[in-house]
Amino acid sequence: MTRVMARAVSQRPFPRGRRVLILASVCVLGLVSCGLYYLQCHGRGCGPVSWDDVTGYDTRTVLPLLSKDVVVRSVYFDDRPRSGHVNASVFMVEARREIVDQGLIVGCQVGRGVAEFFQVRRLALIEVYVHWKHDYVNHDLVMVDCFDLPRARNGSRAFIFVKKANRGGHKGHKVYSVESERPLFFPAPRISRGNDIKLLVCVATARYTSYNRRLTVYSMIYHWLKYQRTIGVDHVHFIAHPSFVERGTLQNDVVRQDIQDGFLSVEFWEPWLNSTDNYHGHSQMLAYEDCVYKHRGTYDYIMMCDTDDFFMPRVPGQPRFQYYIRNWCHYGACRFHWIERYPDCGLDSDNVSPDGNITKMLRSATQQRLSDNKSLYKSSVVLDVGIHMPMESISGYSVIHVPSNVAYFAHVRHDHNPGIGGATC
Question: According to Swiss-Prot or TrEMBL, what is its membrane topology (predicted)?
Fold first, then answer.
C-alpha cells in the first residue's frame, strides 16, 4: 500500500504555481543569456566596428580589441603631466586589417597595471610615433577618453587614442615603424660575467640644427666617442636623423672606424626626429625606450645621455664606469648630478683620458647649474626609462643617488659669449 501511494505521488503533476515559477526562471535565464551574448558580440566586434563604438568610451569595445585583434606598436613614458593627464606610458597598437580598412587603429596610454595586462597577451613590441597635443601636427591621432584598466593597480588610468587611417595630416608626417622582434615587458636574462660588466650608452639626436652644428664645429662628437672608450663603455648606439649623413657628421674617420670596430652602431629615425619640439617632447623618449628594449639581455647596464654629456669620475685611480657601477649602481638604477659647464674653448686636443684635457677643461669651466637627473639603469630590471630619471621596474629596484664628489656628468655648453668662465684647455 505504501509503495502504491508513493508511486502515485511521484506521478502527480507539478502544482500550477510551481510550473509558472519554473517557466519564468527559464525565460529570465534566456533573456540574460541573450543579453550577455549581445554584450560579448558588441565588445569583441562580432559585427562591424564603427567609429561610434570606440568613441563610446566602452571598455567592452576596446579591451577585447586589445587582447584579440591588435599588436602593440610602441611604449613611451612621460613623467610630466600635460593638459591635466596623469603620468602614463603610451602604448600604440595596430588593429587587424578589417579594422584598419574601416579607418580605425586603436592605441592605449596606460599606467602601472598595463604591464601585467599586456604581458599575459605576449604581444610583440614595435615602434611608432605618438602625438600628445590637441593641436597635433599629425591630424591622424585623436584622444578620445579614458577608462579604468581591469588589472590596473593603485588607481591607474588608461587613455584611448584612435587613429583615422590615411585621413590627411601634414605632408611628411606619417606613422612610421621599424620592425623589431623583442618581447614586451619580460625580464631580460640575468647576466653573470663575474667582474666583467658590459655597459651600453644610448644617444638620440634630432635633425641637423644649431645644436648639431656645434657638435661638428667643435669636433665634440669625435672626442666624445674616444672618451667613452677610456671610461669603460662597451658599445654606443646612436639614433640619428639622416641629415647627419648629409652634413658629414658621421663621415669622420673616427666615427667610421668605431662603426667598423663594432663600438658604434647607427640607426636612422627620420620621421620621429624631424623637429626639435618632437625631439624634446616625446621622440627622444621613444628612441631611448627602443634602445633599451633592443639591448636588454646583451648589456648589463644602459646609460642614456647626449654627445655633450661627459661622465666625470672623481675617485682617485678609478677612471672607469665599472667601479662606480659595482659600488653605487648594482641595485638597479643610480642617479648622477648633472652640472652644466661653459668652457671657453673647444675640444681640440687628442688627450681625452679621464685625467687629461677634457677633465681639466670641464672642471675649470663655469658651473652653471647642478641637478640630480642623469640615470644609469640595470637592464634586467628596468621597465620604463627616461632621459633624466628611472621609472618603473619589473622586479623592483633601489635608486641610489651618487654624490657629486664621487662622480657626476658634465653638460658642455658652447652657446655662450666668449670670455665666460675663463677656462683654459
Answer: Single-pass membrane protein
138-165, pLDDT tens digit by residue? 323 322 222 222 322 222 223 333 333 3
The string of pLDDT tens digits covering residues 19-32 is 667 777 777 677 66
Q: What pLDDT sits at residue 371?
A: 64
Q: Which of 117-131, 152-166, 287-301 is modeled with the greatest confidence?
A: 287-301
Rounded to an integer, what distance in angstroms lies between the CA atom of residue 115 and that of residue 363? 43
Sheet (strand 70-78) strand order: 70-78, 88-95, 105-110, 158-163, 141-147
**CA dist., res. 359 & res. 349, Å (int):** 12
Q: What is the spatial distance between Cα 98 and Cα 107, in angstroms, rounded to a whole number?
A: 16
Would you list the domain boundaries of the chain?
A: 51-163, 199-412
What does CATH list as the number for 199-412?
A: 3.90.550
- pLDDT at position 225 is 85
Rounded Cα–Cα distance for residues 308 and 414 (Å): 10
Within 8 A by CB and 6+ apart from 170, the residues are: 137, 138, 139
- Could you tell me the pTM of the whole model? 0.54
Which amino acid belongs to residue 147? F
